[in-house]
Write a structure and sequence with these properties.
By secondary structure, this protein is α+β, with helices and mostly antiparallel strands. Among the domains are: 148 residues, YVTN repeat-like/Quinoprotein amine dehydrogenase (Methylamine Dehydrogenase, Chain H), CATH 2.130.10.10; 115 residues, Sandwich (Immunoglobulin-like); 108 residues, Helix Hairpins (Orthogonal Bundle), CATH 1.10.287; 161 residues, 2-Layer Sandwich (Heat Shock Protein 90), CATH 3.30.565.10; 125 residues, Rossmann fold; 125 residues, Orthogonal Bundle (Arc Repressor Mutant, subunit A), CATH 1.10.10.60. It is built from 19 helices and 64 strands. A five-stranded mixed beta sheet has the order 45-51-50-47-48, with no helix packed on it. A five-stranded mixed beta sheet has the order 53-55-56-58-57, with helices on one face. It is elongated, with a radius of gyration of 55 Å. The termini are far apart. About 4% of the residues have low confidence.
């Protein structure tokens, strides 16, 4: 027994009585400790430390630095760690005796996290894990594990010559002498030897032949030549010969090389007998033996990071993917798609895999052979963060990764992670900081304050025995459960509870657990759990709790273990969730009775419903049958009404013929006139009968046709062109699409747009009116914009009300309306399942927008809709807005008429095309007194006879077999031989759609049946007379002064090109008809017939007429120019010929013409 006293140590054998021995007599003994080797350590209050070994008493010397001695003579406490080392606490701190090496040292534990809170140690204790707990005087309790002492940090100390020049540590390499070469982002290069002493430092300022720039981006060590290759930002690539201590820069010392990688280097890697360089200029290979650069093709894109595997495959970033290129076969490429959001920060090729670090998407492992990609994130593993910077592989197959949360070790075999967190280190690691693995698997990591040295053991738990896991808390339905509370779920604390009995509603659980492992609070603990009866496999988690929701009644067992234990030290908790009352046997009997009753009620209800449905179907069938009969009646009446129109046309035509008989007795005349009035009244009744179908029982049925809404609106737009022109308004039509199919009732929509357009033109005195058509997927917008007076905000809210009118005393139009136009317009648009919108400002104008659906889905369930599959021409009859005003009082041409009735050969011819034989005979009788009549019974025959006879006028019906009148008209107007012939179309359908279609096909006039014979004949005479007037104008006036708007566009183009050709050769006496034909590209025979019809002259006469009119203009414009010279300039071969031709044209010689014109001006 060793007894410490204030006066030495008393040694007394246990079995002996008062046989004792005293050592260290007079010393104040503080603590006596026996280690595992049975050595006794004696600490005194102020006299230092003694060691008694095998009866040999040794005093430990006092050394202020703690090396091979103690730092303070006051020794207070002892403890022995698992390795047999003795730790003792003093007034000045903690010291250690290394039993293996028999040396003393003062220890600041742990140095990388700040050391002891206070140096004065009063107590020491070692727990079962080997962790030592130290109680201090002012700093409380500190604990540490002696095996976790390999982390060393080399600080940045810029003010000291022995410190690193710059804190931002980049890439690092180790040479064959175990020297660590360090690059910095602004401080050049430093070299640290194995004793952590800086032996070399290079900056751009240290030597004129040193590194060209302090911003170092990459280092690469060539062991065979003991060369260090340095990539800089703005300094290019350099080489340092470590043996000779000489720098070589490839930008300044190798100017002859054409393929230089430039001044900005990103990354360097060894490959074969050289290095591969990534720079802003691309990818280069440097043959270190030949000292020659080779640039790879341009598809090797600029990349900040790359790696080369053992198969000479180059892996580099391509956006958020990786491009793999064989360096031996550069055109053999492959794109490895990663499908990640984060940016790639580093690529490492090893073990036939690619280890890809990303900024935001964690760590990716790509198996090159199987092309399988594995993704590790903080959500599916114990990776501490999804932001990984760089990685390096140790010889043991451990992948060291830096990130924003510290240093992580990835076991590539077990696929587990261990982490030294960021707060375990002295300074943060940021993107760009480097990592280097030494041959002895020591890891060097750069940070913002220097370099941290760690070993693999720093990531591992040193204790082999596993610490037990216990359940520490439980939440039921988010309520924390305490023993003997909340219904008695727990009768004692959860750690001592083996089974939980819960009701059916208590099925949402959060169970907390913990481990008594305090060996390293910085290493994240991973757990595995499984709920037997619910889970099929173990699940890993980094959080010390599990959550289960909506568990069904039953028995479960919750098992929890630490990660990688393979079944050892498993904590188990039985959970029994009881069934609710409604899941018991008596509840199921009640369910069966209820089900049987409900089934009987359902069967009875369905039978009654079936009988009711049969009655309703019978009633519906009868109603449908009646409606079908009514419909067939209406169809019959409508068809008969259409058939009435042609006979009515014949009746009215014969009546008109009777009324033309001269000296008709008044009594007979009045009776015939009465017949005409009754025929016209009958025509009105037929129209009413057609409208009757539309308004039966105040229900209007839409007759929908799928047709081009753009052309439909454009046709209506063209009707008002003349009216807009007369008002001097800018009238425009715009459509973002050329064709757009839409379902609509054309007869109704015509009323809508005619109403909106007429209002816009009516209330716009100056500015513009325009239509814009836009499409937005499933609808079309037709906007009518004007710059008129606009509508106030108050009126805008009521403008669509029935009978509402805007009061404006200054407006003459307001008194003429009824106030139902816009209301009716809105009703029509809404009937089409559309909308009408108004955007107006008073004084600025208005925009009415009609929005219609494009598809037919809106109308499928609408009972008031009728779909018409074919776009027939008899969809409805509407008001004829394009009727032309003519003199209805003409009875027959008078003596001064251009067309006289006589028995001689008629000068002008008319082609009449009509399939109704009786009506054809009426038309023949009507025109034969004034024209040479040619007849045809359909459009095809009419087109053939038009080509054969080339008549002066064509009158044609529209609805005919083989070819319609509109198609024949279109072909005539597109034929250069026939396009000058006027065409009048006749139809029994007086609709705007029919009118516009005929006029768009080129018809010169459009007359509805039944027609007035006088009007038809007057319009025919007017068309022929207008053609003769144009002949006369062309003969007398310059072609530029003749109004050609009534002539077909093809004919206008021919006249224009002919005039331009003649004027271009006006002074060419040889320019004749053959030359003219070549210029305008028309055959001579076609040109002859065309000019006779258009101008009344032959082409030769037209050329002569043009030269003479040109000469007449020059005589007046140049009064001093000789007549002979003017004749020469106008293409006349001699003055005599010029004078003779001029006199024939104007009745006087050129000299007299000039003199008379000059006198008239005076």
């Amino acid at each position: 027994m060793y007894i410490g006293t204030t006066n030495g140590v008393i040694i007394s054998p246990v079995k002996a009585v008062w046989e004792e021995q005293c050592i260290l007599d007079g010393e104040d003994i503080y603590r006596i400790f026996e280690d595992s080797r049975h050595d006794f350590w004696i600490g005194t209050r102020m006299k230092g430390l003694y060691r008694l070994s095998n009866d040999n008493l040794e005093k430990v010397p006092l050394c202020p630095n703690g090396v091979n001695g103690i730092i303070d003579p006051q020794i207070r406490e002892f403890v022995e760690d698992d390795d047999g080392n003795v730790w003792f606490g003093t007034f000045m701190g903690l010291q250690k005796y290394d039993a293996k090496n028999k040396i003393y040292s003062a220890v600041n534990i742990p140095q990388y996290v700040g050391g002891l809170n206070h140096p004065s140690i009063f107590s020491l204790y070692k727990d079962r894990q080997g962790t030592i707990w130290a109680g201090s005087y002012f700093g409380g309790v500190n604990y540490f594990n002696p095996t976790k002492n390999s982390v060393i940090h080399y600080d940045y100390q810029a003010k000291e010559l022995s410190g690193l020049y710059y804190s931002y540590i980049g890439e690092m390499v180790i040479d064959k002498n175990d020297n660590l070469w360090i690059s910095t982002d602004g401080g050049g290069i430093s070299c640290i030897d194995r004793n952590w002493k800086i032996v070399k430092q290079f900056t751009s300022q240290s030597s004129s032949h040193g590194i060209p720039h302090n911003n170092i981006k990459s280092l690469c060590y060539d062991e065979s030549n003991n060369m260090l290759y340095i990539g800089t930002h703005l300094g290019g690539l350099s080489r340092y010969d470590i043996n000779k201590g000489v720098f070589y820069n490839y930008m300044t010392d190798n100017k002859s090389s054409l393929d230089n990688p430039g001044e900005i280097i990103h990354h360097i890697e060894n490959w074969k007998n050289g290095i591969v360089i990534s720079s802003r200029e691309g990818i280069f290979f440097l043959d270190t033996k030949q000292n020659v650069f080779k640039k790879y093709p341009d598809f090797f894109e600029e990349t900040l990071t790359f790696d080369i595997d053992e198969n000479d495959v180059f892996y580099a970033t391509k956006g958020n993917d990786i491009m793999a290129i064989s360096l031996n076969e550069p055109y053999k490429r492959q794109i490895i798609e990663l499908h990640i959001q984060g940016e790639i920060s580093h690529i490492l090729s090893a073990q036939n895999r690619l280890y890809i670090s990303t900024l935001g998407s964690g760590l990716l492992v790509y198996d090159i052979s199987t092309k399988r990609l594995e993704t590790y994130t903080k959500d599916n593993s114990n990776l501490p963060s999804n932001y990984c910077y760089v990685s390096q592989l140790t010889s043991n197959g451990k992948l060291m990764i830096t990130g924003d949360k510290g240093i992580t070790m990835f076991d590539t075999t077990g696929k587990t992670f261990s982490t030294i967190k960021q707060n375990y280190l002295k300074a943060p690691i940021i993107w760009g900081c480097g990592i280097c693995v030494a041959p002895n698997n020591v890891i060097y990591v750069g940070d913002t304050k220097g370099i941290t040295r760690v070993e693999e053991s720093d990531f591992l738990t040193p204790m082999q025995q596993q610490q037990p896991i216990y359940f520490s808390g439980i939440y039921v339905n988010n309520n924390l459960i305490h023993p003997s509370e909340n219904g008695g779920i727990l009768s004692k604390i959860l750690a001592f509870t083996h089974e939980l009995k819960l009701s059916a509603s208590e099925n949402n659980l959060i169970i907390e657990f913990a481990s008594s492992d305090y060996i390293d609070r910085h290493v994240q603990q991973i757990y595995e759990y499984k709920l037997e009866g619910f889970d099929d496999a173990w699940t890993s988690t980094a959080v010390p709790f599990v959550r289960y929701t909506n568990l069904t009644p039953g028995k479960y067992v919750l098992c929890v273990r630490t990660g990688g234990e393979n079944g050892k030290n498993v904590a188990r908790l039985d959970i029994n969730i009881q069934s609710p009352w409604y899941n018991t046997w008596y509840a199921w009997v009640l369910y069966l009775i209820t089900f049987t009753s409900i089934t009987w009620l359902i069967v009875r209800y369905k039978n009654e419903k079936k009988n009711l449905a049969y009655s309703l179907e019978k009633e519906r069938f009868e109603k449908h049958h009646i409606e079908q009969l009514n419909h067939e009646k209406l169809v019959f009446f409508t068809n008969v009404s259409h058939e009435f129109r042609t006979p009515l046309t014949l009746i009215i035509s014969h009546i008109d013929t009777l009324l033309q008989i001269p000296n008709l007795q008044p009594v007979v005349y009045n009776k015939v006139l009465k017949l005409k009035q009754n025929a016209q009244y009958m025509y009105s009744l037929i129209s009413d009968l057609l409208d009757f179908r539309k308004f039966t029982q105040n229900k209007y049925t839409l007759h929908l046709v799928q047709r081009d809404i753009c052309s439909f609106v454009k046709d209506i737009f063209s009707v008002f062109s003349d009216f807009a022109g007369r008002k001097g308004l800018k009238y425009e039509f715009h459509s973002e699409v050329e064709n757009l199919l839409c379902w609509f009732d054309s007869s109704l929509l015509e009323k809508v747009f005619f109403n909106l357009l007429s209002n816009a033109l009516k209330y716009t005195e100056e500015g513009c009116v325009e239509i814009n058509i836009t499409s937005s997927g499933d609808s079309v917008d037709i906007s009518i914009r004007d710059t008129g007076k606009g509508i106030s905000a108050e009126d805008s809210t009521r403008i669509f009300e029935r009978f509402y009118q805007i009061e404006d005393k200054n407006d003459d139009y307001t008194s003429t309306g009824t106030g139902i136009g816009l209301a009716f317009t809105k009703s029509i648009v809404e009937k089409h399942h559309g909308k009408i919108l108004l955007d107006s400002k008073l004084g600025e104008g208005s925009i009415f927008t009609v929005r219609l659906p494009l598809g037919d889905s809106e109308y499928v369930n609408d009972p008031h809709v009728h779909f018409i599959e074919e776009n027939r021409e008899n969809l409805g009859e509407i008001k004829n807005y394009v009727d032309m005003e003519v003199d209805t009082e003409i009875s027959r041409p008078d003596d001064n008429s251009l067309l006289e009735e006589n028995n001689e050969e008629k000068k002008y011819s008319v082609l009449i095309v009509e399939d109704n034989a009786e009506l054809l005979k009426v038309l023949d009788n009507l025109f034969s007194p004034f024209y040479f009549v040619i007849t045809a019974v359909n459009g095809k025959e009419g087109l053939d006879k038009a080509n054969e006879y080339k008549p002066d006028l064509i009158v044609s019906d529209i609805m005919m077999p083989e070819m319609s009148g509109t198609e024949m008209c279109m072909r005539i107007k597109n034929n250069i031989d026939l396009c000058h012939i006027p065409v009048i179309l006749l139809t029994a359908l007086n609709t705007v759609e029919q009118n516009i279609e005929g006029l768009n096909r080129g018809a010169d006039d459009y007359i509805s049946k039944p027609f007035n014979s006088n009007i038809l004949l007057a319009r025919a005479n007017s068309l022929v007379r207008n053609r003769l007037l144009i002949h006369n104008q062309i003969r007398k006036k310059p072609i530029t002064e003749v109004d050609l708007t009534s002539i077909n566009l093809l004919d206008q183009d021919i006249l224009k090109r002919t005039s331009e050709a003649i004027e271009a050769h006006i002074d060419d006496t040889e320019f004749d008809v053959p030359e003219l034909c070549k210029e305008i590209g028309i055959g001579r025979s076609v040109l002859y017939s065309k000019f006779k019809a258009l101008t009344g002259m032959t082409p030769n006469n037209f050329i002569l007429n043009y030269r003479l009119k040109y000469a007449a203009a020059m005589l007046l414009k140049y009064p001093d120019l000789p007549v002979a010279e003017i004749g020469d300039k106008c293409g006349f071969s001699s003055p005599v010929y010029f004078s003779r031709c001029f006199k024939n044209q104007y009745g006087v010689t050129p000299q007299v013409y000039r003199k008379n014109s000059t006198n008239n001006e005076k």
